[in-house]
Write the structure tokens for this entry.
Amino acid sequence: MTPRDLVNLPQLMSLTSGRSEIVVGMVDGPVAADHPDLAQTNIQELPGKTGTACAQTSSAACVHGTFVAGILSAKRGSTAPAICPDCTLLVNPMFSETATGSADQPSSTAEELASAILECIDAGARVLNLSLAVARSPSKGERALKLALDHAARRGVIIVAAAGNQGTVGGTTITSHPWVIAVAACDANGKPVNASNLGASIGLRGLRAPGEGVTSLGADGQTLTLGGTSVAAPFVTGAVALVWSQLPAATGAQIRLAFHRAHARGRGSVTPPLLDAWAAYQYAAMR
């Protein structure tokens, strides 16, 4: 069973590969846009901002950004999941290629992330993928981040965020926000991986998705296999983008409600239910 099969994506993917007017914001590292499986897809950079493309394909930022982009936007038939290649992928690269660290889950400050969220919303993003962690920040930064998430809710921009890979039970400013869909990682059998964060708010409003042994695009033109909640989040983001592509007149609140109500069972614990992309589409289509 492939990761896409686990979360019932193939039926939805057979209906659509996305619409260009569904803009998916990706706050991440830069992307190796010249990768042969990305070269023909609709990848855009923020107006007035440069640095969407990788300068150093070996950097952790480039590896991470390209991997996530492959899950969302690689061409169909690629070795990557390639969920919604005909949606517009709006890349907001906020991770430095000169920074050291792992490609598992880059981090930012709360204030940096708040600014990046607002930039994507202003540029027309309809759904936002946050495959990142937030470093401990002063209360001023946390307040700025909460205000940015509140703004997304008012604008109907759906926020999908990685739950984190610290193996803890709890919540953050992002995962505790009532508008955010926090995503925990699971293995090939749908069981949460040990490193995935869980929590009451994650169980109540979040989902779990494939986050172990997922293959996507490497920045050097080869394939790469990674895991973690950063990998799991774009499965949910891509599913949201496909459902919205099929139902373009729906509001963000309606699409988000479909993903919540279609997965209403099993929300009594710190572990969220497994994404069922087809069930979410059916729920939205009937409303």
About this structure: The two ends are 31 Å apart (CA to CA). The first strand starts at residue 23 and ends at 28. The longest helix spans residues 229-246. Residues 3-286 form a domain with the Rossmann fold fold (CATH 3.40.50.200).
